Model the fold of this input.
Amino acid sequence: MMEPTTSLRPGDDAPDITLPSATDDGTISLAAYRGEGPVLLALFRGLY
Amino acid sequence: MSLGLTAEKLRGAGVELVGVVGTAANRARRYFSYRRPRYPVAADPDLASHRAFGLPHTAFTPEIFQIANAKIDGVAREAGLKVPAGGGWQALDREDGIQPNEFALDIERHQAQLTGQFLIDRQGVIRWSNIETERDGMDGIDRFPSDDELLAALRAL
Done:
């Protein structure tokens, strides 16, 4: 039913994403966490 | 999105939960001003992140629409709302003080976008992932991994 998945897998480099914060002024960037510690990135749908 | 306790457990294990929601920043900020998440959340109304991580996407079919309606009806009933079949969306919007049309355009634009979680190490490499429906088929819609699953993935790092 869904298009064949081409999702990134363990071992792949995570693309950097830089986006506006959904709660405050400013941005959130995955690159900012590099060298800091692991991140669990959770991609949600919209707030429908 | 109500993952405050999960975020705290992950933080205790040295991991930051970072969410991305497919809603414009200005509207998301208004929404979250009533229920502020206890972890950073970014706004991505065009779902560019979902595409960058290759999450599956398809047009809304009647079957998907039916499943989505049933799930939302369940959420509404769990929240103590009395809703007729297919009435969950409107009931929850009323409860949240959201104008129904406000989000309808996003739904139409996004169609059926699947979600996913990626554990990314400090070098920027994905070490674990969970793609919605990949393990449980359509029963896995809206299923967020349990804290135990997440902590087990962390221990394997």
Remarks:
- The mean pLDDT of chain A is 90.
